[in-house]
DNA sequence: CATGAATGAGTCTTCATTCAT
DNA sequence: GATGAATGAAGACTCATTCAT
């Protein structure tokens, strides 16, 4: 299903319905949402899920790809903003906002090994690298912090909030602000461990 | 199983074996680790799991309780340290360290409704409240963050690191340092959302 | 499964195989017959049982419904017979005969709470009521006996016989004759307790 | 456990506690009442059950024996009553009453193969035979019914009533009266099947 | 292409029974 | 004798996946 063969119109529509249904179902029920429920929500038969996605894992990977790709688009659009510091904050805000609307963290690990995911992830790393570089040069980011650091911290604000039963919808902004303060150059204390490098 | 009935020596040993095995298994496979695998790892029969824990949920709750209680102990021990700021950092370090060794976040939601968990969690809130108060009075903490903020941020450093396939064992210290910098009074920017209150 | 969705030919066949297998299995082993055994006897996989019946209870209720409905049909067919007394005896004979071939009494209690069962049971009460009324008017039934009495006594002849290890196939007719003699007007002694009323 | 070795006082007491507890538990929960519940109700440990009874089946057989033996006692006591017809009715009343208080029918089949049960059952047959003979000679019983007929019909009145959700406590007397009317000589119609003989 | 019936491995849980304490 | 911890074979039920229609 990785191939780029053109789909018949109705098939393409079913694929989109399924992706949307799966997203909602995963967001509500976690990774253990059942294929049957997803199919029902999409209004198609169970068999159709497997015509479009080789396995449940594949479906998950597709969703994750879609979201990562969206983030990459945002990062690229911000790569020539006039205020690089504000641009980075805006990216992190957009990332958290997207994650807030569809809780999909847990899905990442599930699809870690999928080559499509690694590919789009690398693209996101590249795009985010540009933002981070520019922020560094503008002095908006503490110098001992790398693109990977920012990448890893990206999902933290929403994660923090998820430990609450009924968090205010925008509460994550509070924790993004705190973490972003920790990323600023002023008042930065030396970091105890070296930055990680990607494999 | 909260009752204070004294356990026979061999039974107590099995209970501990089970808790340890369950911890490892949950850490490796997530909350969907099977009771059968846990039993095998502990070297006992499946039925023995249910002799010690009324259900899988009960087992999870027991583990979570154990860990929360340990944290409460740490917080209490630090409540009269001479340097309140250092004490708070030490607590967060200990918390992250514990969580790093047994990834159990996901279990929290699973046992949210268990009264034993809510009880020990409240106790942790109280103990952490003392640490935060003292840090505030010592000027070691920005004035606009609350105990609940610190509580929620507690697990973030390890969570951040979990998105990496093979993180360096102490890498979380790096993100704890960044987040803690964000909690310091110097260079703090105003927070966009009010602090959450617990139910 | 009461819905009127048309079943695919093979599915309908499996459903019937399952009902038949379940009937036999329950008759032989009682209500504790296992779903696995039923599936094996029907020549299908365990999962198929649950595709057709939401639960074991649902399966039981379906069987009970089927049998009660068959009885209702018999009662209705007899409701305009020329000899009301003979018609009632014929109904009781048919009822005992059916029950003899599939011992399902014990299942009744198991499915008491199912609304489908209560519904068809009410219909049977109504149909039997007609038979009893006509028998009363024809003087073929002692006057102090009600429809509910007849309903309750319906299964007694077969039950009586079940205490025997290897009863003659038609032995129940002997006890139906005795009980029916007890229901006749001649030689009737007054009854010590009032007739029960249905809820 | 069939042996007649004298038990230590406390052991004998435990045995009685267990029998009583088992009776209640079976009456409430049916044959699937668990050994654990029975032990708890008796206030002893699970292991003790198996010290007194070789198996759950053996426990059931013991209860059934106890009840059958009690009935035999009643039958013997009535064997020289002045009115043989009244004596037979009284026996059937006592039998139904006992069965009403402890629903144990289902247990019979469970213990059919136990030699102790067959033995006491034979004794009951003998004692009941005397009552039936005398009733025949007194002209209180239709001539075409045998001791085995009466034996088999013995439990019917209570069984009939069990199909009701909440029967009046003495409702079974109504059906015993009807059945007994069927056993009287007056108005008896010929029986369609020969009387069964015991193996 | 889409359907949904069938599969069967796998899940949690229960329980009669055994045996070391 | 009594205890209760341990066992392991079932049991009901779920679900990703396959395939005939």
Question: Could you please describe the fold and organization of this structure?
Answer:
Chains A, B, C, D: It comes from Mycolicibacterium confluentis. Chains A, B, C, D: GO terms for molecular function: DNA-binding transcription factor activity; transcription cis-regulatory region binding. Four copies of one chain form a homotetramer. With 199 residues, chain A is mainly alpha-helical. Chain A has helices spanning 9-29, 35-42, 46-52, 56-77, 84-101, 105-110, 115-137, 147-153, 156-161, 172-183. Chain A folds into two domains: 1-54, Arc Repressor Mutant, subunit A (Orthogonal Bundle); 57-183, Tetracycline Repressor, domain 2, CATH 1.10.357.10. In chain A, 65% of the residues lie in helices and 0% in strands. Chain A is elongated. Chains in contact: A-B, C-D. Chain B binds a DNA duplex (21 and 21 nucleotides) through helix 1 and helix 3.
Topology:
Four copies of one chain form a homotetramer.
Chain A: H1 9-29, H2 35-42, H3 46-52, H4 56-77, H5 84-101, H6 105-110, H7 115-137, H8 147-153, H9 156-161, H10 172-183
Helix pairs in contact in A: 1-2, 2-3, 4-5, 4-7, 5-7, 5-10, 7-8
Chain B binds a DNA duplex (21 and 21 nucleotides) through residues 8-11, 14, 32, 34-36, 44-52, 55-56.
Percentage of residues in DSSP E strands of chain A? under 5%
Order of helices and strands of chain A: HHHHHHHHHH
Q: Whole-number average pLDDT of chain A? A: 89
**Main beta-sheet annotation of chain A:** none
Structural class of chain A: mainly alpha
Low-confidence stretches of chain A: none
| Overall number of structural domains of chain A | 2
Name of the level-1 CATH class of the largest domain in chain A: Mainly Alpha
Number of helices, where a helix is a run of at least 4 consecutive DSSP H or I residues of chain A: 10
Shape of chain A: elongated
| Total beta strands of chain A | 0
| Quaternary | homotetramer
GO molecular function (chains A, B, C, D): DNA-binding transcription factor activity; transcription cis-regulatory region binding
InterPro entries (chains A, B, C, D): Homeodomain-like_sf, HTH-type_TetR-like_transc_reg, HTH_TetR, Tet_transcr_reg_TetR-rel_C_sf, TetR_SbtR-like_C
Protein name (chains A, B, C, D): TetR family transcriptional regulator
Keywords (chains A, B, C, D): DNA-binding, Transcription, Transcription regulation
């Amino acid at each position: 299903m990785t191939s780029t063969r053109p789909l018949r119109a109705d098939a393409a529509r079913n694929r989109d319905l399924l992706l949307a249904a799966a997203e909602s179902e995963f967001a509500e029920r976690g990774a253990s949402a059942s294929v049957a429920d997803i199919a029902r929500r999409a209004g198609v038969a169970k068999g159709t899920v497997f015509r479009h996605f080789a396995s449940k894992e594949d479906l998950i990977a597709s969703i994750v790809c879609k979201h990562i790709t969206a983030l990459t688009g945002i990062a690229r659009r911000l790569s020539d903003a006039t205020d690089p510091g504000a641009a980075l904050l805006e990216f992190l805000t957009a990332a958290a906002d997207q994650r807030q609307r569809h809780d999909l963290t847990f899905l990442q690990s599930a699809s870690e090994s999928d080559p499509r995911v690694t590919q789009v992830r690398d693209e996101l790393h590249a795009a985010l690298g540009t933002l981070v570089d520019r922020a560094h040069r503008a002095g908006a980011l503490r110098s001992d912090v790398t693109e990977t650091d920012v990448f890893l911290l990206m999902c933290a604000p929403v994660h923090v909030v998820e430990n609450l039963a009924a968090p205010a919808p925008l509460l994550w902004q509070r924790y993004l602000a705190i973490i972003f303060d920790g990323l600023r150059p002023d008042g930065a204390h030396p970091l105890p461990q070296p930055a990680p490098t990607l494999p």
